[in-house]
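assembly run, all chains below
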Amino acid sequence: MKRHIQTQITKDLGIEHPIIQGGMMWVSQPELVAAISNAGGLGILTALTFETPEGLATAIKQTRELTSKPFGVNLTLLPTLAPKNYDGFVDVIVSEGIGIVETAGRNPVQFIEKLKGADIKVIHKCTSVRFAKKAESIGCDYVSIDGCECAGHPGEEDITSLILIPRAVDELSIPVIASGGFADGRGLIAALALGAGAINMGTRFVATVESPVHQNVKDWLVRAGEGDTTYVMRSLRNTERVLKNSIAEKVVALEAKGAGIEELAPLVSGKNGLKVLSTGDIEAGLCTAGLCVGLVNDIPTVAELIERIVSDAREILDTRFSD
Ligand code: NAD
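ok done. output:
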């Protein structure tokens, strides 16, 4: 009989497998999000991908046409080059009846009352035990703890998932989601062994058939190894892990000379990142990826990927620890 890997988190969120897709700027679009939810994971739209709250509302409706399973919305609270209408996005999340929100970056204290008042489950993604405890204290339901292996913003303390996950589990009463470095069934079992109730994956989902990025980017992820990422913006205390390319090299060189955000902005701008993803010109801007890019060797459908992760995890449980 097939072993069903269930945890408190899968039961609470109404999902079949303990696999959550982390919000990814530009990538977490309705087709990918719905494919992940339909395959038994939790797909998450990313609010800031849409220029306006109305754009997010349209994407939520499109996702609902593609899946009847639960999905969430990510709201990232980090410095931006252009102001974002966060209040408008939160209003849409509430009025559209979204049940699960992933916040990331700064803690979501300014929105927590509105979100909890609408009975929304809040997952806060953060990069240290200190931030995780703060999230718990303001009423978040789950913490997604991001080891420095992660794509995007790993924080400034460089603590790996192997340490950060059990430290968060030890310090928190709310369930913990393991984020940063997860891409396969081995990682899923490791995360559960460390005390997490689910894994959060980003990079692995970018290299899938349903991912909306250009084929060149998917091929880049397949080609890249675990040594092919670098940090940028550390000097601004807004570190981002990106794939090595000429733009990343330029940013690092400028930072070494003391450049500030004004000088770096034309290089690090998300608009250039979008160009990479949509045109496939991999030198057009920064492209974020986690260290787990070393474990990404193919471009399966989302359903194939999730099925493989779950069956590999089951096989580990069934065979690796028996006599
Ligand atoms: P953007 O073009 O506004 O900014 C580009 C980069 O510069 C971002 O990493 C941003 O954090 C950083 N930045 C901007 N102003 C800064 C400042 N004053 N000091 C230090 N760093 C600064 O970013 P975007 O691509 O339009 O993305 C919008 C927001 O979403 C940003 O905060 C970005 O970091 C965040 N983001 C979210 C995800 C996600 O997966 N949810 C992924 C990537 C980026």
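The CA atoms of residues 125 and 144 lie 4 Å apart.

The chain has two domains: 8-210+301-320, 215-279.

not gonna interpret more than that til we talk
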